[in-house]
Design goal:
Elements lengths: L1 H15 L4 E11 L2 E11 L6 H11 L4 E4 L4 E12 L6 E10 L2 E10 L5 H27 L5 H32 L11 H16 L8 H8 L4 H20 L4 H12 L1 H12 L3 H18 L20 H11 L8 E7 L4 E5 L2 E3 L4 E8 L10 E10 L1 H8 L6 H12 L3 H13 L4 H8 L24 H11 L10
Parallel strand pairs: 1-7
Antiparallel strand pairs: 1-2, 2-4, 3-4, 4-5, 5-6, 6-11, 7-10, 8-11, 9-10
Helix pairs in contact: 1-4, 3-4, 3-9, 3-11, 4-5, 6-7, 7-8
Length: about 500
């Protein structure tokens, strides 16, 4: 059973290393309240970019793509403008909002790509898949060892510890998959393993704590990773399985472990054994019936044959029954043809916050992620966000003698200013216009209160005086002016 879980880990990794995939390259450039958006798509690997997807994106942009044939591929480019809501071109939803004020502007970009936010629903699906995997593997083990006197011990283990463990490991593999999307690993030459290494260590610790493997088995496991010849592989697996079956299920007959080791060491024999059992299950019969139904619809007039990248989908084998459940178990597809997304964001002004990679030399932000194929919703959405600030330098220098608000302070100011009601906003803007870079103006700023706020201290002392709605903005500006010649005390 440990071998099955290790194989699952490897398959998760292979899903991210697929060569053939659809490539999406998105360029986003805010221009005030509007956003320039350019999407280039192509097929990296065998085959062509799906025609149905090109037509769908064309409808989003309201025009066909510009084609650019290159050596081995053809690239298709769409471009357009949007305001506020981002177009559903790649798949997802997003917004760009620009908060403009006399002191400058703040921009907030947020966009998710594909995936699903229904965490509770996805958790339920993964737990159901874990139960189904346990059922399928138990059925296969019964076909191999059902008549053995110790099979009831195996069944009890599969229905208790194993069933619960693969549910927990589903969540561990999900966290590993998440960090594999974005974790670039530690810096060169350093000992730090990064989030990916930590996730793998947690999984290894889980196996150790629950007796699937012992610390003394680590050298044997390392030999397996080195892919020795079949006889040595079978011998190493036999040692591991004898220990695991004895510790976890109480199985004493070493012939069971040896038979399992022989199967796991011979991939063809393992495939024949598992396939033979799975071909008898109702799950395979349903999988096959669903495939035949899809093919019939594709061949019908108006069907997707010739357009859909899945139109050439071959007949499923019985092993696909297990693979489908493993896809659900880890919360993403384990197969090839993941899509790849690259987003390049060219901001106006300063980058204040982002979860992307910020290039100080160019001032641009990039995100690069692998995505599920369109129509699949098993992973968390890929999320891109950036907060920017663009000071109105000429205005600030005219009224304060220098730039007083930028970066996070300018973002905070813009959000405060846009949150004012119409009357207070008009009053504040008029007050700013009246200021000049002199001491008298800054004393007025220090004492500013809106016209509907009390200007004298009520009975009860200073702590009873309500805080002005303008206090946060006034404090940010005055803090930036500390030490300026115009704010120094009179000599």
């Amino acid at each position: 059973m440990k071998r099955f879980l290790v194989i699952a880990t490897v398959l998760v990794g292979l899903g991210y290393l697929s060569c053939d995939h659809n490539e999406y390259a998105l360029k986003i450039a805010p221009r005030g309240q509007a956003v320039e958006r350019q999407l280039t798509v192509f097929r990296d690997g065998k085959g062509n970019f799906p025609q149905a997807e090109l037509e769908r994106i064309g409808k989003v942009y309201g025009k066909a793509a510009q084609e650019k044939p290159e050596k081995d591929i053809t690239k298709y480019t769409f471009d357009g403008h949007s305001s506020g809501k981002m177009p559903d071109d790649v798949g997802g939803a997003g917004t760009y909002t620009c908060f403009e004020t006399a002191m400058g502007s703040a921009g907030i970009y947020m966009e998710r790509f594909r995936g699903t936010d229904d965490l509770a629903g996805q958790l339920e699906i993964r737990m159901q898949a874990a139960d189904k995997i346990a059922d399928l593997l138990l059925g296969w083990l019964k076909s191999e060892f059902g008549k053995h006197e110790e099979f009831p011990k195996i069944k009890r283990f599969m229905d208790t510890d194993f069933r619960q463990d693969i549910k927990n490991l589903s969540l561990y593999f999900r966290s590993l998959a998440d960090v594999m999307l974005t974790d670039g690993g530690p810096g060169e030459g350093g000992p730090e393993v990064g989030p990916k290494g930590e996730a793998i260590a947690r999984i290894a610790q889980y196996f150790l704590e629950r007796g699937y493997i012992r610390t003394t088995d680590i050298p044997t496991a390392a030999r397996l990773m080195a892919r020795p010849d079949p006889k040595r592989t079978e011998a190493a697996l036999g040692r591991l399985l004898r220990n695991a079956l004895s510790a976890k299920a109480g199985v004493k007959d070493v012939r069971i472990a040896d038979r399992l080791a022989a199967l796991l060491a011979d991939s063809e024999a393992l495939d024949r054994s598992v396939s033979a059992y799975l071909s008898t299950t109702s799950d395979y019969k349903k999988l096959l019936a669903d495939w035949k139904s899809r093919k019939a619809k594709q061949r019908a007039p108006g069907g997707s044959a010739g357009k859909d990248e899945n139109a050439a989908e071959g007949e499923p084998g019985s092993l696909d029954v297990l693979k489908v459940q493993m896809d659900l178990w880890v919360g993403r597809s384990l197969g090839p043809s993941d899509d790849n997304l690259t987003v390049l964001f060219s901001p106006e002004g300063q980058v204040v916050k982002t979860n992307g990679h910020f290039d100080k030399a160019t001032g641009e932000i990039t995100w690069q992620h692998l995505m599920e194929k369109r129509g699949e919703s098993r992973t968390l959405p890929l999320m891109c966000f950036a907060v920017t600030a663009q000071p109105a330098e000429e205005f600030q220098k005219q009224h304060f003698g220098k730039v007083v608000l930028q970066g996070q302070n300018l973002v905070n100011y813009c959000l405060w200013r846009k949150g004012l009601g119409d009357n207070k906003a008009t009053e504040w803007d008029a007050f700013l216009e009246s200021l000049r870079p002199d001491r008298q103006s800054f004393l007025r700023l220090d004492k500013f209160r809106f016209s509907d706020e009390p200007t004298t201290q009520p009975a009860g002392g200073a702590f009873a005086e309500p805080r002005s709605d303008a206090a946060s903005a006034v404090e940010m500006i005055l803090n930036a002016l500390k030490g300026s010649p115009t704010t120094r005390p009179a000599q």
